[in-house]
Amino acid sequence: MEPTKLLHAVSHYRQHPSQHCHTPIHATPILAALPFNGPNHGLPPNLEITDSLPYSLFPAFFKTTETLLPSFQNLISKISKQDNLPPLCLVSDIFLGWTVEVANNLNIFHTVLCTSGAYGTAVYNSVWTHMPHIYTEFEHIALPDFPKTTLHRSQLTNEMKLADGTDFASVFLRRHIAYCMRTGGTLCNTLEGLEGIGIEQLRKTTKTSVWAVGPLLPRSLINPNFMEKGTDEHVWREQGLETVVCVERMDQYPPASILYVSFGSQFNISEKQMKDLALGLEASGRPFIWSIRPPLGLPKIAEFSSESTGCFLRHCGWNSVMESLSKGVPIIGWPMGAEQFFNVKLLVEEVGVCIELGRGQEEVVGWEKVERAVRVVMGDEE
């Protein structure tokens, strides 16, 4: 599919959401708390999500989640007893693969919800499962189960580069990848038309059904008038910081003229990188908005409500990719970690809607390279 047609196809889901929601949902979700004491495991108190967690503490957080298994099994057993039958299905995050043990013990169908893309997940799993990079000194690395896919060593995360098979990341991730191989199926936040190759690769390696259920987007991105309580947008409204002011300011610019820069909450760049990035953005001559870091950044509704947004410069975590494509906006990618490197590889080589600016937190990207990338994506240069 041609990139322009693909962008149109993906953005169609945002513009016509009702055409892709066939079954009304009337049930009210019931939330149940599981006992979790972060300080007992070297984590900050009152920790429930990773948004504010330093990346260095992620291993401790992931390891701690495995201690929830007994409490979770007791909860599901209690629900089964109350309802006089077990739940029809257990859906778990990919990093909570141990829930497949509970499902098997209680004879419940289990599926994994993969919030990342199919291609990125398949490559990520392959690297951690086979670790081909530790058996060669070459810069280009072939994947045993995807012979047509070659990675450059610079496309590996720091954890992958340091892994030897006995380190925490290797042991933990291999264990959870093995859990996910025992699931009944995978729900993937993607589209068949976007990631046909990736979905087939994921089916091949997991040997299970893979269903494309994306794009999974916040309702505020589909309907800018929707304001859900508890979201960044709702907080802004409560504090009197009207999002509409931000959008009106952006709307003063022509369509597709503003570059939006955001690297999310998990990764930082150095002072030198920030300076070169700022100089390159200024040299491009294009107006830009740089969301330094939440909570100082604009809420997503401001990013996507204005037609003046013409390009995103992002780390290319899959959520940000789906948000960008849903708006029909091309991307300048600077992957920092996780499967982001593989997402960029897909977007550059297969989809054609992205230019890669840099790789990893250590690379210093000169301002000249930033300027040229912006000019090319924004249509000022070939």
TrEMBL record:
User: GO molecular-function annotation terms?
Assistant: UDP-glucosyltransferase activity
The record's section on InterPro entries has: UDP_glucos_trans
Coiled-coil stretches noted in the UniProt entry, renumbered to this chain:
none
Q: Which Gene3D superfamilies does UniProt cross-reference here?
A: Glycogen Phosphorylase B
- Which keywords has UniProt assigned to this entry? Transferase
- Origin: domain of life: Eukaryota
Provide the protein name: UDP-glycosyltransferases domain-containing protein
